[in-house]
Write a structure and sequence with these properties.
The protein is α/β, with parallel strands linked by helices. The protein has 5 helices and 10 strands. The strands form 3 sheets. The protein has a 6-stranded mixed sheet, with helices on one face.
Length: about 160
């Protein structure tokens, strides 16, 4: 089913901080600039890291202690979107919706999965989408007994 799409851009922040997690303040800033996120929307987070996907050493970085480093979505922001805007999905241009340094997968475990909210990871070209007004289409494989599958994701702007 097609869904309204909202894009929240944190590229300027996450370019400087690979451990950055989307905050409620980021969402509120986006809404102030572009309008409220409509109920039933999918929200995509543009960290700018989608431009790096062909460069593995820049797309997924690892610190000296072996921790993964890439931006993601903070738990409070995910729950705010779910509870206040009643979104149906969250997507991001990194390898996971949780920041790389979150080995507990907090957003997965405490926000999206318990609330039936789907998520998309590894998206590209988010910077080409408008902040509001596009429609997202997500084609998924019929998949039983697993936690994920490839998807064909398209946005109509």
């Amino acid at each position: 089913m097609p869904r309204p799409l909202a894009v929240v851009d944190i590229e300027a922040i996450s370019a400087e901080n690979p451990d950055y997690a989307l905050t409620v303040a980021d969402i509120e800033r986006s809404e102030k600039a572009h309008g409220a996120i409509a109920e039933g929307s999918a929200v995509l987070v543009n960290t700018g890291w989608g431009k790096r996907y062909r460069e593995a050493d820049r797309y997924i970085t690892v610190d000296k202690g072996g921790r993964l480093r890439f931006p993601g979505v903070g738990r409070e922001a995910a729950l705010w979107l779910i509870e206040k805007r009643r979104i149906v999905g969250i997507g991001i241009d990194t390898v996971g919706i949780d920041p790389g340094n979150d080995s507990d997968f907090t957003v997965h475990r405490h926000a999206t999965l318990p609330n039936g909210v789907w998520h998309l990871e590894g998206l590209v070209n988010l910077e080409t989408l408008p902040a509001r007004g596009a429609t997202i289409f997500v084609g998924v494989l019929p998949f039983v007994g697993g936690s994920g599958a490839p998807a064909r994701v398209m946005a109509l702007a």
